[in-house]
Amino acid sequence: MPKLKTRKAAAKRFRQTGTGKFTRRKANRNHLLEHKSTARKNKLSHMAIVDERDEERVSLMLPYL
């Protein structure tokens, strides 16, 4: 059976934790940051866990993680 290809766009966006879950960045922290509060920007800077309903799709895009 041939090797499976990794989706490079997904490989740049997701990381796998030690327990096998996937982490992702939160949206809304790239530009237009002047009017957003410091607390809001700080909360957006932390990594989020990918929802369990999306985990299967992410794992199919990243077969070797």
Tally of extended strands?
3
- Could you list the spans in which at least 5 consecutive residues all have pLDDT below 50? none
Helix/strand/pairing class, anyone?
Answer: alpha+beta
| Rg, nearest Å | 15 Å
Which CATH architecture? Irregular
| Largest sheet geometry | 3 strands, antiparallel
Quaternary: single chain
SSE order, one letter for each helix or strand: HEEHEH
Q: What is the number of independent domains?
A: 1
User: What best-fitting shape do the alpha-carbon axes yield?
Assistant: elongated
Please, what is the average pLDDT? 97
| Distance N to C terminus | 19 Å
Top CATH class: Few Secondary Structures
- The helix fraction, in percent, is 25-40%
Number of helices: 3
Assign the CATH topology: Factor Xa Inhibitor
Strand content: 5-15%
User: Order of strands across the widest beta sheet?
Assistant: 1-2-3
